[in-house]
Request: fold
Amino acid sequence: MDATPRLLYCHCQFAQVLPKETKEAVLQALCEAGVEFEAVADLCELSARRDPLLKELAEGGPLKIAACFPRAVKWLFAATGSPLQADHTQVCNLRVETAAAAVQQLLHGELLPNLPAGKGAPPAI
Reply:
């Protein structure tokens, strides 16, 4: 892949299913790295509000996302009519990854697409 992946960080403000220490360490590392990234309070909320940012991100080329389960992230975008490109998207699962592993994937590793295969996107609500 030629383009540098965009980075998206979800703070999981409302569901609070991500370990506090992990998400804070990842956010701090992204800030200290001096890289551009989008930080959102809660992807679930953005999906519920059908925020246009999700469409922009889904259509904006390669993307690495620090959030929760790849399947959940996939459907949050799909529910807004903005499906992620499976071959251009990697989700770092902060529910199970260590902060160090997530930062390594986000900042230093190549893009390793990991959205689950399966049914197409549901119709937008």
